[in-house]
Design goal:
4 helices, 118 residues, mainly alpha, two-stranded antiparallel ribbon, single chain
Length: 118
């Protein structure tokens, strides 16, 4: 995070406090998210110091035009395959489908109850 955005948010939060508006109302006026505003209020009040300006090395100046977006990297994300549920078939032909993320203790109690009913 750069110092400029820290200072920008500090000013926004200060103006919001002075406005008497709710976070939602003030954020709507600025066109920002209320959650961002309240997060920055918390961040700034937590005592964290603003980042120090980093020294620039010769030849490392940014060569982008004002307002230009940085290049983006896209990563393809796929949903994990849902594991198949387990199926328990008792000698009495009772079938129990158990999801892959089951609670072993609960399943054990269920099987005990079913065995007692035999």
């Amino acid at each position: 995070m750069d110092r400029a955005s820290w200072e920008t948010w500090a000013k926004r939060v200060e103006r919001w406090k002075d406005s008497g508006l709710t976070a939602k109302e003030y954020a709507a006026e600025l066109g920002i998210k209320a959650h961002s505003l309240t997060w920055w209020k918390w961040r700034l009040s937590s005592g964290a110091a603003a980042p120090k300006a980093s020294p620039r090395r010769r030849g490392s100046a940014k060569r982008s035009t004002p307002g230009a977006a940085a290049p983006l990297t896209f990563v393809e994300m796929t949903a994990a395959a849902a594991p198949e549920p387990l199926e328990v078939v008792l000698p009495s032909s009772i079938r129990i489908r158990v999801p892959s993320a089951f609670d072993a203790a609960t399943l054990g109690r269920l099987l005990d109850v079913l065995e007692q009913r035999r």
